[in-house]
Structure to design on (805 residues):
């Protein structure tokens, strides 16, 4: 940070206020009679023109002119002829990550008076060598004042000098824009042009100094090293508090800690209990989540006694109780220091900051102020990213990816936002996106769980089994993960007709049910007992599960609870009751076709084993079919041979509507070009049917190339619809003209991959609809190419002949 007496005074006397036809901005004395600034501050200045500048706060006025500029780096050098008695700032070489920086600028809101005044800003260097969002060479900085809103909107700070150890490192150019107001800097991150780019424009000598800036020590760097089989923290909780516990694990692992998740209350004896005791012995600390449910559990009290005994007997071990609801902290824990998270749906803020410090053994007040402020900053920004990702997850995938991209631009190392994004994707059934966002992530427990779940859902059963069996060996098998492993064994049984896998599934479900007493593993135990000829077990467990769920308040039952009641009634041959429960489950799961497909698949399997018609409940558990659509675009102006003139749009709408009405419930897959694509999408939206859109390139480029202004309104309706999910584009940049055909061909193949995979999960076969003139196409990626792609894969293509419309 700048020395208050000397550093700030020096910065203020060399700072330059610039006013011209482009508005106001800031510059700095970089050499005798030379001013450095951002090009966009003086964009319209012409050679030979003079504009007033004030050198120093309340300093002397001079007439400045443009000498040289570079749009590729947003830098410019101005000159003035009349000398001034102010020594320019020295230039810094080199720059380091995590060192402190300081600056000074003249915000637009503060320069409306005759004597404009500026504001100091400071922060730390996040990345000394990067590129900004428009590809310019840049330094990434964080500013406390900007994050707090003191310097936003940022107009006027462009060109402000960035000093490290009193020497020039560059000048501010632009910021990462807030999603709600692009004028403001999101999260406090700004870009600067490196001073080395300004030096290239100078025509005079300047002073260069070598600096050795001291890097700020962050909490991440203070995490103690541990052995490969050790853990920083053991997280203990009751199974009913799992959602909150998993969010805490996301934050702990995101911050760099190795976590053992206690998936099971420490019951006496048993394989898993032994594994947990072993894991506890290899942990440096434990976090205990206290809730009313935890207090009411005898097993949780016993586990607490084990943890307290370890804490007392081992001075190197630390036990940190967390209260996660308004329950009264038990006396045995109230006597020690505990943290209150009772008002937090998501762990974060000051309480999480104190918890991380405690687990890493950081004593408050012993670290430098910049280090403490850096940790608080990183945590606050991570809190916001996690919250924004969960909020974005209420919409389509593009909103989550946008926030993930913003996180990646910040240079933060806390990966909690990526784990949160994977959880959102997984919860919505976007399993390809789950694996994409977790690519190259460190193999923490939560990351491994999410990957295994995605592999299972994508049909990669053997890969999922290997990963899940590794969890079991480590004792990391909670109720959900145990059920997932059993489900993989069940899938292998059905694939290979190997009864050994049926027996494995049954035993795994049963072990999990006996450990956790949860309805999910219970109903699957009962169902697999049927298929393993254990009908007495089937009846007993199905009755237990039914009775347990009937005690649950109706308002608290989700669609899985209702489906479980339906399945329990089915297994008990109470078919009228089963129909009532399945009807309610399907209604509650409206908009979740994959979940309804799971209910239907299980009902069919059980009915067949009971000697009943497999389709007995299909009329209640209705699942949409996958519709793949593609076809000609409306002709561009001046097309030599008309193919799809605009005059046929109305007739094609009617033809498409007639086809789609005959198909029944649908979920669409395709692109969103003018003509066929947008017509099909509009008909689907009119029916309330969901759709997934795959674009060959970024949306703005696709719009310019394949939509156009005349179809903008239709495109915007689709883009803004909650029923339409835009997948990640096949290519992350606009293809060259030579690459266009190949990009569209890749998009066609990606549509096929996604559509056939989703149809597999719905136990159905895609319907393929094409609007085509029957002639050879213009090349790869066109309608004729797509027709051939699907026909060669063995699918019938339902054709609408555009010539006959």
């Amino acid at each position: 940070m700048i020395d208050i007496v000397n550093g700030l005074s020096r910065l203020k006397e060399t700072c330059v206020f610039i006013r011209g036809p482009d508005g106001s901005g800031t510059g700095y004395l970089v050499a005798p009679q030379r001013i450095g600034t951002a090009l966009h501050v003086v964009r319209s200045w012409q050679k030979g023109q003079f504009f007033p500048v004030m050198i120093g706060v309340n300093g002397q006025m001079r007439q400045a002119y443009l000498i040289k500029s570079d749009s590729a780096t947003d830098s410019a050098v101005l000159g003035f002829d009349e000398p001034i008695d102010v020594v320019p700032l020295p230039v810094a070489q080199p720059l380091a990550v995590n060192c402190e920086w300081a600056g000074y600028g003249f915000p637009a809101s503060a320069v409306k008076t005759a004597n404009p005044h500026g504001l100091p800003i400071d922060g730390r260097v996040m990345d000394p060598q990067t590129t900004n969002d428009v590809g310019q060479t840049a330094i990434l900085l964080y500013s406390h004042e900007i994050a707090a809103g003191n310097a936003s909107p940022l107009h006027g700070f462009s060109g402000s000098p960035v000093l490290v150890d009193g020497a020039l490192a560059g000048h501010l150019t632009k910021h990462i824009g807030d999603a709600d107001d692009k004028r403001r800097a999101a999260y406090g991150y700004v870009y600067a042009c490196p001073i080395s780019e300004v030096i290239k424009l100078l025509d005079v000598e300047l002073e260069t100094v070598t600096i050795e800036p001291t890097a700020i020590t962050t909490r991440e760097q203070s995490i103690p090293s541990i052995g490969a089989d050790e853990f920083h923290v053991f997280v203990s909780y009751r199974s009913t508090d799992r959602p909150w516990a998993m969010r805490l694990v996301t934050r702990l692992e995101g911050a760099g800690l190795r976590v053992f998740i206690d998936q099971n209350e420490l019951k006496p004896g048993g394989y898993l209990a032994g594994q947990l005791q072993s894991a506890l012995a290899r942990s440096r600390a434990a976090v205990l989540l206290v809730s009313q449910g935890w207090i009411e559990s005898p097993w949780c009290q016993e586990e607490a006694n084990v943890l307290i005994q370890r804490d007392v007997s081992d001075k190197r071990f630390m036990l940190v109780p967390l209260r996660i609801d308004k329950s009264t902290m038990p006396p045995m824990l109230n006597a020690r220091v505990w943290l209150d998270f009772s008002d937090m749906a998501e762990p974060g803020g000051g309480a999480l900051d104190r918890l991380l410090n405690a687990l890493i053994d950081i004593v408050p007040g012993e670290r430098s102020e910049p280090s403490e402020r850096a940790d608080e900053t990183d945590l606050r920004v991570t809190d916001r990213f996690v919250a924004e990702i969960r909020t974005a997850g209420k919409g389509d995938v593009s909103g989550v990816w946008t926030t993930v991209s913003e996180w990646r631009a910040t240079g933060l190392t806390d990966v909690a936002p990526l784990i949160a994004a994977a959880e959102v994707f997984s919860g919505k059934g976007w399993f390809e996106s789950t694996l994409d966002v977790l690519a190259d992530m460190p193999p923490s427990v939560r990351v491994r769980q999410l990957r295994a779940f995605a592999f299972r859902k994508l049909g990669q059963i053997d890969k999922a089994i290997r990963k899940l069996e590794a969890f079991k060996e480590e004792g990391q098998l909670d109720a959900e993960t145990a059920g997932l492993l059993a489900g993989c064994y069940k899938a292998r049984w059905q694939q290979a007709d190997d009864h050994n896998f049926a027996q494995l599934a049954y035993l795994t479900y049963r072990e999990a049910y006996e450990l956790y007493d949860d309805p999910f593993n219970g109903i699957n135990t009962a169902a697999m007992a049927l298929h393993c000829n254990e009908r007495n077990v089937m009846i007993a467990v199905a009755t237990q599960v039914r009775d347990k769920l009937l005690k649950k308040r109706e308002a608290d039952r989700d669609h899985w609870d209702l489906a479980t009641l339906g399945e329990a009634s089915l297994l008990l041959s109470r078919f009228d009751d089963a129909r009532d429960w399945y009807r309610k489950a399907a209604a509650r799961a409206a908009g979740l076709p994959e979940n309804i497909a799971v209910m239907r698949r299980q009902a069919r399997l059980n009915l067949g084993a009971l000697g009943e018609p497999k389709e007995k409940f299909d009329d209640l558990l209705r699942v949409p079919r996958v519709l793949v659509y593609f076809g000609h675009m409306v002709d561009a102006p001046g097309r030599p041979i008309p193919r799809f003139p605009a005059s046929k749009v109305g007739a094609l709408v009617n033809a498409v509507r007639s086809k789609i009405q005959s198909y029944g419930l649908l979920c669409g897959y395709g692109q969103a070009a003018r003509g066929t694509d947008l017509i099909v999408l509009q008909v689907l939206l009119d029916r309330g049917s969901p759709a997934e859109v795959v674009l060959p390139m970024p949306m703005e480029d696709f719009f310019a190339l394949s939509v156009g202004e005349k179809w903008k309104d239709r495109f915007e309706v689709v883009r803004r619809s909650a029923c339409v999910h835009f997948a990640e584009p096949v290519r992350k940049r606009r293809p060259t003209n030579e690459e266009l055909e190949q990009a569209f061909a890749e998009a066609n193949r990606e549509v096929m991959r996604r559509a056939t995979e989703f149809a597999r999960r719905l136990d159905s076969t895609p319907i393929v609809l094409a609007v085509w003139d029957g002639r050879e196409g213009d090349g790869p990626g066109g309608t004729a190419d797509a027709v051939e792609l699907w026909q060669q894969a063995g699918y019938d293509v339902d054709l609408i002949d555009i010539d006959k419309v």
User: Anything to note?
Assistant: The chain has three domains: 7-210, 223-438, 625-804. The longest helix spans residues 369-392.
